[in-house]
Amino acid sequence: MPEDNQEAEAAASYWERRFAAEGMIWGGAPSPTAAHASALFRSEGVRTVWVPGAGYGRNTKALSEEFQVSGTEISASAVELARDWDPRSDIRQGSILEPQEGEREVDGVFCYDVIHLFLAGDRGRLARQIRRRLRPGGVLYLTCFSDEDVNCGRGEQREPGTFVYKPGKTAHFFAFGELQELFPGFEVMEEAHITEALPGPEGLHSYRLRIWAARAGSRSAAE
Ligand SMILES: C[S@@+](CC[C@H](N)C(=O)[O-])C[C@H]1O[C@@H](n2cnc3c(N)ncnc32)[C@H](O)[C@@H]1O
Questions:
Q1: DSSP symbol at 146
Q2: Closest Cα to residue 110, out of 77, 80, 76, 72?
Q3: Which protein residue has the closest C-alpha to ligand 1 atom 4?
Q4: Contact, 183 vs 163, CB < 8 A?
Q5: CB of 171 within 8 A of CB of 149?
Q6: Do residues 161 and 172 make contact, with C-beta atoms less than 8 angstroms apart?
Q7: Helices (H), the chain
Q8: pLDDT of 84-135, one tens digit each?
Q9: Where are the domains of the chain?
Q10: Cα(67)–Cα(58) distance, rounded to whole angstroms?
Q11: What is the pLDDT of residue 203?
Q12: How far, in Å, CA of 61 to CA of 223, rounded?
């Protein structure tokens, strides 16, 4: 089996085990970035939003107050939790690395803390799925681990900028300019940092996240 497939399967069972055992891992309050993204989507006339790696709906619940939200999530347990927590959103089980049956073009994508989970090959695959789903002129709002995070550089280096920063936890820490490389033809609307505290096994942990918002160009410009 190719290395990327093994990684993806290991990640899928990791998330399934966690959601099955811990339920709503990060609680019910949305990330502040959900309100920030909503304001941007509103000002851009966005009506439909796709959330890749939607989890149990922690952030879709805030977005679905205002937008028509669909999500794709690998963990069956998370999808089940999301159906109770955020029944307005249409969250389906599947992989964000491949096209999904019945998917529709959307005006906006909210991709929160997902893309840094993958090695380079799969980051490229996810970026391609986002580019395919987003209509030209649509808005991508993305957050990911930043190279300013304390864990950047800790543990074994798997690839440039990608570290096994804790036992069993690999992440890519994005440097300035890397998202633009992943999304050629996108016009940057906003680049910022936020520090977010989330509950974990050892109590609250602060993460330094990059926020990257950009407008999709024509599909031919992206390929
Ligand atoms: C760090 S969590 C972020 C959760 C979510 N974005 C939120 O707003 O709460 C990463 C999520 O991505 C999901 N995920 C990981 N790999 C995936 C894949 N290949 N396809 C779909 N979802 C995936 C995990 O199951 C998990 O729910």
A1: B
A2: 72
A3: 55
A4: no
A5: no
A6: yes
A7: 3-22, 32-43, 60-63, 76-85, 120-133, 178-182, 219-222
A8: 999 999 999 999 999 999 999 999 999 999 999 999 999 999 999 999 999 9
A9: 3-222
A10: 15
A11: 85
A12: 33
CB 41 within 8 A of CB 50: no
SS3 content of the chain, % helix, strand, coil (to 5): 30, 35, 35
* Residue list, ligand 1 pocket, CB within 6 Å: 8, 11, 15, 53-55, 58-59, 72-75, 78, 95-97, 112-114, 117
Q: Which two tokens stand for residue 46?
A: 């966005």
Q: Considering the domain 3-222 in this protein, what is its CATH number?
A: 3.40.50.150
- Ramachandran bin of 13, using left for φ above 0, alpha for ψ from -120 to 50, beta for the remaining angles: alpha
Query: Distance from the CA of 26 to the center of ligand 1, in angstroms?
Result: 12
* pLDDT value at 210 more than 80: yes
